[in-house]
Amino acid sequence: MHSPNGDLYHREREMGLLQGAVGELALGRPTVATIHGSHGIGKSALLNAVPRLLPPKTLVLRARCHPSESQFPYSMVSQLFDPVLGGAGGHGTPGPGLGEAGPTHEALLGLLRTTRSLAVDRPVAILVDDLTNADPHSLRWFSYIARRLDDLPVLMVATLPASAAAQVAEQLGPLPYLLRLWPEPLCPTCTTELVDRAFDSPVDQELAALCHTLAHGNPLVLHDLVTRLRRTHVPPGSPDPEQVLPIGAQAVSETVLAWLDEDDPCASELLTQLAVLGPDTDPAVCAALSKHGEVHDQQARETLVRAGLLEAGAPGRFTHTAVRPAVLARVSAHERLLLHGRAAAVLARLGAPARQTADQLILAGCDWGIDVLRGAGIQASGVGDRESAARYLRRALTLLEQRGVPGADGDESAAKEAREREESFLDLTMRLGAVELHRDLDACARQAAAAADSPLGPVRRAEALARLASPVLVSRIEGARPFVRVCGELAALPAPPREHLLRLTAQTLLTGHRSGLRRAARLAAADPGDPAAHVFAGALAAAAAAGGRLGTARRMALRVAAGPADAPEGTAPGSAAGPVGAALALTWTGDLDGAAALADRLISTSRASDDLATTLLAHLVRSEVRLRRDEHTDAHTDAHTDAEAALHLARRLNAPALAGAAAAAAARALVGLGRAAEAAVLLTAEPAAGDAHPFIKALSLQAHGTVAAALGDHTTAVRLFLDCGHRLALRGITHPGCVTWRAQAAASYRALGEESASATILDGAPRQRGAAPRPQSVREAGPRPGREPGREPVRERTLLSPAEQRVAELVVRGSSSLEVAEKLFLSKRTVDTHLGRIYRKLGIHSRHELAGAIGEELPV
Fold this sequence. Notes:
Elements: H1 12-26, E1 31-37, H2 43-49, E2 59-64, H3 75-85, H4 105-118, E3 124-129, H5 136-146, E4 154-161, H6 165-172, E5 178-181, H7 188-199, H8 205-215, H9 219-231, H10 241-254, H11 256-263, H12 265-277, H13 283-290, H14 294-306, H15 323-328, H16 333-350, H17 354-364, H18 370-382, H19 386-403, H20 412-436, H21 441-452, H22 458-468, H23 477-491, H24 498-511, H25 517-526, H26 531-546, H27 550-562, H28 577-588, H29 592-608, H30 612-627, H31 635-652, H32 656-672, H33 676-685, H34 694-710, H35 714-730, H36 741-751, H37 755-763, H38 802-812, H39 817-823, H40 828-842, H41 847-854
Parallel strand pairs: 1-4, 1-5, 2-3, 3-4
Helix pairs in contact: 7-8, 7-9, 8-9, 8-10, 9-10, 11-12, 12-14, 13-14, 13-16, 16-17, 17-18, 18-19, 18-20, 19-20, 20-21, 20-22, 21-22, 21-23, 22-23, 22-24, 23-24, 24-25, 24-26, 25-26, 26-27, 26-28, 27-28, 28-29, 28-30, 29-30, 30-31, 30-32, 31-32, 32-33, 32-34, 33-34, 34-35, 35-36, 36-37, 38-40, ...
């Protein structure tokens, strides 16, 4: 612990050395003492402590130099001698204030004689503050006198900045009576005592430590900081660090940084560079920016370390988080942009890592560097920093768009430039979409739509979309359309790329469309063991299960679950359609154990590859499997856990449609746990997206119906269940194992006392293969054997196929054949073919008759 010396803290060593110098003065021997250090370290305080150490009757001559007086010859000498000599003249010596043209030898001799005459009768102490600000004549006098004090009782003490240490050592170093003092920063203990004294009460230890860190032991900065804290009424006993830090930053900014600007512009420039560009900026970059060279840069770093702004060990690392904001507050926005732009150019010239250069490009708003930004995006994506990757790639796309389209003047070079631009645009779009697939699914869907609009042809479009073909994107209609359109274009080519067609067809199958199905099936059959064929087979298994072909669906799903022989450890997003489709098919065909095992494996592999989208789908599938295992007492608890995990991921990935599906699964699990009111709140807070996939909308309607039935509102429940079935039928999902809405609707009908409606809704389910065939037309049937005469004839029904149901529904609503074709992604010829079959099945001849007959065919 350091004891205070009057107002001085942590100055025992310096005061001891000054006591020794005063002792030499009392013995008639000279001493020249120089006090070095940075601004505010306490040099003037030590100088002011010297008079009270001096022997009685000592003559004290004092001067304080200022830059404004440096142009007047002998201004410092005048401050020293005028009080005792009364101006020019005296004792027969030439006056020091006569203003000679230069420091002649005669003038210096005269001043030396004056000094000797003053020291004849008593000791003399010459105290000079800020000697480096003295005029050149006075500086010459100080050096001249200091070297000629061998037999005089004279003590000369001067304060100088640290930067003047080398000059003093060169001029006065050989003197045997030279004493050099370097005051140290205050220690934490002394800082605490000083702060306690300033607040007149013990302060919080954390506040004292924070003050010490911010001031770096500089007494003047510490005094300024404490004064500001008291002025803003910071409580010393329980301070708020968030309140103290800005005050500390301001104190540092207005003291230390101002001193740097004045004393060492090179160090101030380096500090600004490190604050703007980042504390870990390469020293070579700083040297290139400053144009001073690495030697000056290293000296500037040492100055900043001595000033307490940079750490000694780590180059460029600030001593405290408050330093950088304080420096940045002094830099204008225009100056920042210029510095970032220069740094980007230097980094590009030095071949720095792309990410480092790209950061400066973005901050500077430069209109160049597309390739640098692309490389930075690839680097960031490779290390999992997808936020930065998306920022780099978005900036590159913006720059590419700002360039505009080259003029179409028929010039060959212009055409080549236009194609290169489109290639670059498609490449950046695809890469950005691949990044967004892991962080923002809505943004990924927008990039997929942009890629589908590329003018480079169907093969290049298909190549880009195949990289983005993840089943999470078909959760919304807008996300599904690009894949359906490009898949149709690809299938129409004479020789489409096999892998792209299989992956895009798998994507369209999950949307309920069959673009390119036949061709993809033939290609998959030619080599059923490769990964692309397994992706297609998984999606086809889900489509087969949805249409009621259970045996086919299960066989294909089990083959996909076995996986290709060369399957990698993880699951790429573009390959997720295979296992996800297979897991759904196994769930809908009743193989819950197989579906659960596949979902478990899918969660494990997708987590290993950091594929959050596939993890989300796997949690949804496993939640559905657990909901169907009613024999397990904790099945609904586990299902709710999976649904909550899926909901969290859906919100994180900005996927409102999948968030609605996860909320529906969680609500059904809560109903199973007897928490229907909580389920109703959840469904209200997480409504289904307006353009969600019809299957997801059906799941949401089923969940709402389940909650309504659990709360006793069976009328609403029946309406919701029937709406659910209607939407499923329009998408061609006719297998009752996909969504159990019929059984739930029948239960609500029974609760309402409508047994006949309950039996009818169950009987309306499509029959599986092997069941007795239904009549192929609608007609008035005659009396059956055993039927009593006089009874009304029974109107037998035949259900249209799923595709026919979709077409008939849209036609009844007033859509033309062309509009139906556009909405269902079919050709007009296919729509007309469906209409012909519908007319034959219903025994009608026109659209006008369709409205009257369709009510008996569609389960509205």
